[in-house]
Amino acid sequence: MRLFLAIKPDLEAQEKLYKQIQTLPQNSNLKPVKLQDLHITLQFFGEVEDSRINELICLINDNLDTKDFKIKTQNSIFFPKYGDTKIIGIKCFIPDKEFQSILKLNKKCVQFNFSKEERRFIPHITIFRVNGVINKDNYNISTNIDFCVKKLDLIKSDLTPSGPIYTTIKEFKLK
Q1: Extended strands (E) in the chain
Q2: Could you list the residue range(s) of the whole structural domain that residue 144 is in?
Q3: What's the rounded Cα separation, in Å, for the pair 105 and 118?
Q4: Which residues are CB-neighbours of 11 under 8 A, at least 6 positions away?
Q5: What is the CATH number of the domain that holds 46?
Q6: How many domains is the chain partitioned into structurally?
Q7: Measuring CA to CA, how many Å separate 83 from each of 31, 78, 79, 86, 160?
Q8: Which residues pair with 7 in a beta bridge?
Q9: Are the C-beta atoms of residues 70 and 147 closer than 8 Å to each other?
Q10: The overall pTM is greater than 0.90
Q11: What is the pLDDT of residues 13-34, one digit of tens each?
């Protein structure tokens, strides 16, 4: 099962963000993320064997030591930084204490072989997937939306020709 751990903005924040996204120029090279699919990926696990899912859930439960906190969306961010853009996102500010807690949890997941990579975590909400060349200047926005994080979601991602289908399989309430 293809899994990742994420923060999903509340519906009000999703709607505010989506309203701003819709003001950006549409382009045949862009595939917008659906409103209900907006999220911040904290850790991508890739394919996890069914026999290890409970182990992963326990690992997250045992190492999640974060209380509710606020996130503020900021400005556009483009991935990769150099070369042809593949992802347009909205950078998100996570307070340092919570950010460090997420990094610690990510390292534990790598340590227990639930993630093959340990790359630099840049909190962002993907808003477009890009397939072709775009003018980045047309997609620079500043959003400044605050939302409270009260839970993390373990999400299953089923890849289909029309795009991914996300299903939350476990919610982790924050303290």
Answers
A1: 2-7, 30-32, 40-47, 69-79, 87-93, 124-130, 146-149, 151-160, 163-173
A2: 2-173
A3: 11
A4: none
A5: 3.90.1140.10
A6: 1
A7: 19, 10, 9, 9, 27
A8: 40
A9: yes
A10: yes
A11: 999 999 999 999 988 999 999 9
